Amino acid sequence: MLAYALAHPQSSTKMISENCDLSKSRLWTILNESGAHPYRSTPVQGLLPKDDERRHMWCNFVMNHLADHPTFLADIIWTGEACV
């Protein structure tokens, strides 16, 4: 079952249980015991055509600053989780 789930990462738990001939509750038990978690992609924001230019401007901005200041990204992207 775990090999099937790894080979087919976009499969739902329902599909995996049907293809592996397991009940959904048994499948969830195996997933939980192995430390695996089902994955579902949830897009929360779509890109617009005008976003392309803004992304290029940001990349150029970062690349120019990295040339002079190699720790630029580490200095501006900081969260409490980064220090744990």
UniProtKB/TrEMBL annotation:
It comes from the Eukaryota. This is Transposase Tc1-like domain-containing protein. It comes from Araneus ventricosus. The lineage of its organism: Eukaryota, Metazoa, Ecdysozoa, Arthropoda, Chelicerata.
